[in-house]
Records
---
Amino acid sequence: MLIDSHCHLDLVENTTPDVLIDTAKSHGVSHFLSVSIDFEHLPHLLTISEQFDEVFASVGIHPNTTCETEATVEELVSFADHPKVIAIGETGLDYYRSEGDLTWQHERFRTHIEAAKQTQKPLIVHTREAKADTLQTLKSENARDVSGIMHCFVEDWETAKKAMDMNFYISFSGIVTFKNAKVLHEVAKKMPLDYMLVETDSPYLAPVPYRGKTNQPAYVKYVAESIAKLRGDSVETIATATTDNFARLFNVNVQ
């Protein structure tokens, strides 16, 4: 069985969580981490996690989300007390979508890291065109103490190694199925199995053969199949490793 380590069940339109989950199960996907991007959608996200045993949740504010007031460490810690919340994030740095003085984004990132340390729950890290600053912040804030995921990884092997040196797992999305993602293909080939995860980031970034369409957790199987083909491994090998890694990282039972 596979686990979708990063999806947004509350954001997939024209369907319902139960349909998404049933469809995913028919494609060999057993569990889901539905990830928070703001406090506005968080109540619905938590409700979904309460309704379905297979769904875990996170709490956090995406680095590109516009807020009138910033979340505090205390607020994040309070929300993280929910029994289905197993992670803090997604958080991080994004220099592609956000421009100008990004002091606020750095402060938001550090706030999430502190909340992760206080709750001892792993971080879900988003980084885009900010890999050096992302790694430096994780290092300076001692994020190694809590570990986490480099979600939707698109960087090179050197960046992956530095992240793994801080005990961060590398999660591959549908991008790894794209023919032009040559650098990412090399990372997938070199990755030690015990630091690998798979995800959809649905409703975004649908893999081949659904590229350009709405993504859903069922499609994580195409991510696993693509990685297996690149490595010369079986899909079962990828599924077993990534499921075991998820259970170990988040200290949850996914049997």
---
Amino acid sequence: MAKELEAKRKISISAFFPCYNDAGSIALVVQDAYETIKKITDDFEIIVIDDASRDESVKVLKKLKRQMPNLKLVLHKNNKGYGGALKSGFENATKELIFYTDGDGQYDVKEIKRLVEKLTNKVDIVQGFKIKRSDPWYRTLIGKLYHYTSKILFDLKVKDVDCDFRLIRKRAIDTIWLEYNSGVICVELVKKLQMKGFKFAQVGVNHLPRLSGHSQFFNYQRIFKTLFELGQLWWKIVVFKQNGIKISK
């Protein structure tokens, strides 16, 4: 029992969740995170980044905050995109470790325990990968094409760059500058951390059917924009060798 209590005091975790029109799932995600993380450590915070939702998400979150006063809400007045929501999450996280996943419930936040178990003194990022994607066939196909294209273009070492289920040391995040406000930020994040020499571990996680709402990515306009920005990122990082490292003033 003493060893268990000592282990709980050794780490601190910021868990944040980007939310956009996730009124049907975000409360369960937050509650599951709270119940799970408090068994791992006594030193943690939970943050939700609402990216100007047009449904009842903010209403749900404000009600949840009355029940959970230590819940931190960051409410965007204007939609900043998925990458913009992630950047707000990283900026508002204050603990040693940062965990994030989406607010739509397609990942089981209780599986954060799998990430923590993989963390060692030699590991800086624990990256999840989908054991099996629980999506329609066309989304699975597009997801695989996106992953393999990104993997080849950027020489990525992870199994699933599109799996937004990550545990990252804050000191690693604090060394890089993230530019993109779209989903391209995931490739940008992994590549820049990889370029800095931070060490990754990987673990399989379950991917679940969406609890409510629908994906914001799968329309022609967003797919075209994502591919354009992916090419732009490749040009900056691979051709011009821009590393996105923060420079201290």
---
Amino acid sequence: MDASFLVHFADLQDPRIERCKRHALLDILFLAVSAVLAGAEGWEDIEEFGHTKLDWLRQFVPFANGIPRHDTVARVLSRLNPEALQSCFIEWMQAVAQVTAGAVVAIDGKTLRRSFDTASRQSALHMVSAWASGNGVVLGQLRTAAKSNEITAIPALLNLLHLRGCIVTIDAMGCQRDIAAAITAQKADYVLAVKANQSALHEETVDFFTQARACGFRGVRHAFAEHTDAGHGRVEVRRYWQCGQVEHLSQRALWSGVKSFALVECERHVNGTVSTEQRYYISSLAVDVEQLARAVRGHWGIENSLHWVLDMTFREDESRIRRGHAAENISTLRRLALNLLKRETSHAGSQRKKRRRSGWDDAYREKVLFGHSL
């Protein structure tokens, strides 16, 4: 990441009044990022890491007054403006992560289950993230008040990102005409899952493919692909049908740039049991079934490559950090740390192993943070 972390986060506005600033804001942020990267999960962990690694930390920022107490770190991060921190995060990602034309950007939400606070009537934090499936990094995220509010958060997140030439994938919650228009306005394409929340569109898509399959697609222009994956006692067959005859959709004029719609069927064989699931999509992509298949697979990967890693490697669902804006800001720092681990490829192994090594090995931690060792 070279020195861009320090550059992009240096102008954050400190929420404290001047006479209370014993520790510089950048010192606290650099300490928190380094500690989270090295395995810290709470405020006391961050302070302990700082005392243990003070000499190493002082190679990069002054820490003129030593390591701040854990309650100081908690107070600052609970008051720090999360939108400003997120803006710095997005700027940094745009500077260091190349998202090329045709890249799949998956938009999906995740609830931090233990971030609720019954006493203050604070509901669990729900974050909507934009994830670049090709290089496996988070491009940005926004908080919503509840899962149902993803519909309003997604356009706001899209407006923060540079998506020209990308393929944006969203599950059925985000299958909205305004969202499709926001994507095409950025000269990007979309693949949106269609379910009953768009009842007319869903019904027409299901009816079309039901009738087409019944007659073996006779006289129906379409493209088809089939992919099979096997491993760990499971076989999964995925079949893709894509059709460009959008005149079959009565509301096509309301969907910006729509050029095709699709059926994806997943057939799973596990221990002699077979299950089948059908999913339907609407897209601004012209008919190219392999491109569609890549986009759909890229979206499914967000569960294993982002959400699962955040829970299993960073133990996000177990975090009880709740005070003020702290849960949202720590969530951003976890994603920043995960991006750093994903971008460091010299050390083979899982993100968990690389995070553990970042805690033990000063030279490796420096390499993860800055892309080199001094």
---
Amino acid sequence: MTEREDILGKTYPEIRKIVEDLKMPRYAATQITEWLYKKGASSFEQMTNLAKESRKVLEESYYVGRHPSSGVQVSGDGTKKYLFPVRSGKHIEAVFIPEAERATLCISSQVGCKMGCIFCMTGKQGFQGNLSAGEIVNQIASLPERTALTNYVYMGMGEPLANTENVMKSVEILTADYGYAISPSRITVSTIGMLPGLELMIAQRKCHLAISLHSPFEEERLHLMPVEKLYPIKRVIEFLKKNSPGGQRRISFEYIMFSGINDTARHVNGLAKLLNGLRCRINLIRYHPIPGVELQSSNEETVQWFKSRLNQKGILTTIRASRGQDIFAACGMLSTYHKAVTG
């Protein structure tokens, strides 16, 4: 007997195919998607406008796929890091960040990560699997604060564009009229610069993109991020310059400030040269130390100076506010802790 799949995370065409295969009325596809994405059903029994026989057939073949969080860490600043179980038996994280006029959810796309960035706690776990589209969507569907969300960022555990198919599918569900009907301008997908997925994302989706940069110089970036060998940042930026998206889509670069490594005038000039001709912005990020890594964050004076110099070069530069430092702040720390205490 085939193992039951989750129906959460299926697109409308996929649900229509399920309805056809189960010999249900064609209009049931619209009813099911409405219950999943508009009404937040957690069981087939709640889908009361479906015939009882249809609900029974669905129950025999599928799970709904809504899974509540299994743990949460709450920061004094209101940030909440939720732990969600996934079908592999592992756990992933989603971080809710409330602010004055917005509320952001940081979404995971993988269990662990294979990219090996030396500053990332998730990378220390190694790669343990891709999340399905349903497991990605569940982080939103089962979030207690779901109705308060204004922004969605694929910037949690994993490299989103190493799981392109499921990330693309989840973005479709978030933005489609049959799904959550969220404006693409509310969604940002972060990547370390995996070109095949980046090409697909620009061609087929309209959400914002954030590229992890961290150094304009090849050898330094390679030390921090092994992916530089496979997808050099110069190639990534050349592609973006040739395929610079217009409209509302925003291209930004994430730049973690490491003391004595990437925070000098040489780096300011290198960034200005590298990004010349590309409409973009830079987000400076203070580094939050993780166990076993000796890297330190640049001091506040240096971070402010770096921002000022980049702005003087004509590059719109902001500093990301540090949130949740009194809890397991780095991506991967809560799930690593959970694994340690549960075995």
